[in-house]
Amino acid sequence: MSNEMQEEISPTTPAETVAPSTSSQQDDGVPRTDAEERDPYHVRLEGDEDPKSKTKVTKWMAVIIICSAATCVTCTSSVASFTQSPMQEQWHVSSPVTILGISLFVEGLGLGPLLLGPLSEFYGRNFVYWSSFSLFVVLNLPVALAPNIVVYLVFRFLTGVSGAAFLSVAGGSVSDLFANEEVLLPMAIYSVSPMIGPVLGPAVSGFINQNTHWRWTYWVIVIWAGVELALLVFLVPETYVPTLETRKARKLRKSTGDEKYYSTLERSDKGLMHTIALSCLRPFEIMWYEPMALLLDIWAALLLGILYLTFEAFPTRVFGRDRGFNTQMSGLSFVGIGIGMVIAIASQPYWIKVYKEDRIPYWERKMRAERQKCMEEGEKGDKSATRKREPEPEARLLIGMVGAVLVTFGLFWFAFTTPHAIHWVVPMLATVPFGLGVIYAFISIWTFLVHAYRPYAASAMAGNSLTRCAFAAAFPLISTPMYARLGVVGATGLLAGLSALMMPLPFVFYHYGKRLRKNSRFAL
């Protein structure tokens, strides 16, 4: 078995799937040798056995459950934003210590996919879903019952790791269920769902902490996660093709008594520990040798870091008691970001048309015209030529250009309208383009990485996830001293300036990315 199996696209964080596969490789991304293709005992899925053949109801039910479960995991990261004050009073600890409740959880989200994500390649998607979400439910119990800050922080980190294992393969299930021409919309919806969670968290936490004890914040998470676990067990089918083929091979051996039947996964010579080691090392290798991947990772990390910084800044510095906001109202101050993200979801059909139709720049339209001419001349069998005429990965940066401008614009608008002399609705409106731009930027970065580094997309996305989570964990810790020294206008203006420095990236890579990829050891 070649190493490409270890770099399959589907177990990554949110991203699109790749182009249709060739005859020697099924849509599951697992290479087959010519001997395996001819061997009558080599088990493959046929007809309705393929996950892509399931009914639309089954597919979309699975997508909805997976998206809501992803939202639950990421929502858990930010619900801690309103539990800090009561914990400080109860356990007599400082604010930076309680902020670690957010930071450690997010660090767990970054490390979990490296360590636990490869399990799906051996045991399937559902094994990871059931085991990781069961742990997520169980490990949240000590958080809700924590007798001291040490127990609380340790189990916050562990819940982050277990939740990340789910996120590491959830996008793969979406791509398993839909053909390449159908996957854009469900994948776009899934890509946004983990980003909605952190914005929803403060609203949930603010309402609970205004009306009852802080521990109920985590009891609500336990209940929500328990419901999601039940839905995952009973309503989400296994979608990983190698696992389904292995199950079929076992049934055939049992029913026929013939031990010759086998699946590709059963003949694989790779080991679990080797796969985990590769999963941990290759993301750093890509970031070291690929400047485009590194810079896009830093841009994504900055955006997520700013988003998580708002969980500390909004309740205490911007929309706190100085403006007459109680805990519940402060939690609702994140509604503007959420509205921007919802607009991003609603606009995805338009962006899908941008890629599918001639609403793209001239050089892309020219490639489409050449592809059409090739097919009209009867060269349909030349799949490699057809694939070369697909839009370049740089086309995915178009939405990122819009996102980069919106984020910078929203942050500057927010920075200069936060003084109390200006009505609170004005800075809150500024968070709408920020939320919209953040989602546009993430979708652009993720899809570009998957298409540009297609053979190593899993590692490229893992590196992006690790970098993002590192920044998201650090930014809440620096928010208090930064806002104390620079003030609200100065601190937010600094963030806007950093965003402005990163804004040219999608424009530069859009025009020069193809040239840079020619000299790359990992990119196509």
UniProtKB/TrEMBL annotation:
Q: Report the principal subcellular site.
A: membrane
Q: Does the keyword Transmembrane helix apply?
A: yes
Renumbered to this chain, the Basic and acidic residues biased-composition regions fall at: 29-50
Q: Name one GO cellular component term.
A: plasma membrane
Using the record, list the residue span of the signal peptide; answer none if the entry has no such feature.
none
Give UniProt keywords alphabetically. Membrane, Transmembrane, Transmembrane helix
Matching entries from CDD domains are given as: MFS_Tpo1_MDR_like
Compartments, as annotated in UniProt: Membrane
Membrane topology of the entry: Multi-pass membrane protein
From the record, give the transmembrane residue ranges.
60-82, 94-115, 127-145, 151-171, 183-204, 216-241, 292-311, 331-352, 397-416, 428-453, 465-484, 490-512
Q: Which region ranges are annotated with the description Disordered?
A: 1-50
> Which stretches make up the Major facilitator superfamily (MFS) profile domain?
62-524
Task: Quote the InterPro entries the UniProt record gives.
Answer: MFS (IPR011701), MFS_dom (IPR020846), MFS_trans_sf (IPR036259)
- Cross-referenced SUPFAM superfamilies, in alphabetical order? MFS general substrate transporter
Composition bias, kind Polar residues: at what positions?
A: 1-27
Q: Which GO terms describe its molecular function?
A: transmembrane transporter activity
Name assigned to this protein: Major facilitator superfamily (MFS) profile domain-containing protein
Q: In which organism is this protein found?
A: Tulasnella calospora MUT 4182
Taxonomic classification, please?
Answer: Eukaryota, Fungi, Dikarya, Basidiomycota, Agaricomycotina
